Every structure is written in C-alpha cells, then in structure tokens.
Fold this protein.
Amino acid sequence: MTSLSGKIALVTGASRGAGRGIAIELGKAGATVYVTGRSTRGNATNNWPGTVDDTVAEIEAAGGKAVAVRCDHTIDAETEAVIEQIRDEQGKLDILVNNVWGAHDIGVEPGAFWELPLAIWDKMFTAGVRAQLATNHYAIPLLSENPEALIVHTTFWDEGKYSGQFYYDLAKNALVRMAYGLSEELREEGIAVLAVSPGFMRTELVLKHFGADEENWMEYEDLKQTETPHYIGRAITALAMDPDVMEKSGQVLKAGDLAKEYGFTDIDGRYIPPFTV
C-alpha cells in the first residue's frame, strides 16, 4: 500500500461523526480533503458539536490539507457547485466518500412502520439516499477522467439481518444496492465502488445522548463496545491505499473485518470486532 499524497478526496457530511473521522484519517494519509456539511463555525446545525471548519482545522493541525465547503446535499445546485469547485481548483477527484445522512435531524424513532410518520421517509431517503445518489451523479464525470478512482458509501450492514427500524433498514440497504449497481456500471471505467459499515460509533451525538465524553465513556455499560469514527476512517483510508481495491468493488464490508485484514486499530489501540445486531 502507498500513501495518499497527491490524491484529492471529497467527504460529504463531515462536520461530525463518521464523516469527520474519515476526512481526518484521509488527510493524515496525505490526501487533500474537501469537507462538506451544513454546519459552519458560528452556524452549527441544531447547535450540535462539530462543523466543517472544525474538521478542516483538525486535519491541518495533523499536517494535512483540507478545504471546508458549506453544502446542503439536498439542494442539487449546491452539490454540483462543490464538484465544479474541485474541478476548478484541483482538476481531478480521486476519492468520493458518500456519508451525508440527514436522518440525524429527527433521530431513528422506534415503533411499527404503520405507526411512524411518513415524514421519516423524507429525511432518510431525500436527505440520505437521494443526497448520496445526487453527489454520485455530479461527481462521476470528474472521477471517470481519473484512472483508479474510488467511491465509498457509508451504510449499516449485518449480513442482511433486519436492523429493527423499517425506514432505517430500507434506506441503509438501498445504499448497499446503490454501491453494487454503480460497481457494475463503472467496472469498465476502472472505478471501484464499495459500501462500508461501521460498528456502534462513539460519535459526538452518541456521547451527548449518554451524557458522556471521551474521558469517561468506559464507565457506561452501553458504550463499552463502541468505536470512534476514526475506525471507519482508517478502514476507508486502507481501502484507498490498496492498489488491488478493484477486486473488492461491489462488496459491502465491515470496519472490524477491514481492521483485521489491513492490520489497523482504533485510535486507542483497540481492535473492535465487526458489529452485529
């Protein structure tokens, strides 16, 4: 495997959570990372912790290069503008990580499908599945100009088991199928397309929910098997550095399995096994 020096990456939905961890790890590996999200310094969505500016600052503090771009990926014109900015400034795109997921705005409500509001569809499919599809739509022409490009969709996958929430399960499986379909369409272009599933991540919002922080999370029984967002970041970085990644195109992979294959750990040195329901 080689470093990502000279590579240009776009990570969507990277103000916090998985996107932030992925962007930081790609930046540490040498890629120039474009970081998109709705939250900017002084104007964070729902007053949640984390902004695109914070993510860029952390990449730069680690010696990497990054560009923050405010983008609402439910607005096609804004998504298209991000790709055009990358084209104008870099002339190419090597790595696209589709991570945007608008369902955080409403949470994953438990309950029977027929008892839940249909509005959940809009957040999970318009601000989640369609937003990722639209980013592909605008990015693929630029990606296809560059040999050996990589597209990754973050999702949830547990060997086809039902996740327990109808809308969430449907949306996450749609992302798995999107990656597979694109892998078939882009195989002759030499573009690898994968879906990657993290485990139970200790994101900013998860810690906020439990009233915990990175200093005391081990005191919470429900958090003892969690991983940081850097774990999936290291998984995707390992894939991006693998010269044979095309052999995996079309697959859905778990961060824990990739840790074992590529020999990385979470930032605290732990190996966390693949997550199961």
In short: Strands lie at 8-11, 32-37, 65-70, 95-98, 150-154, 192-197, 252-254.
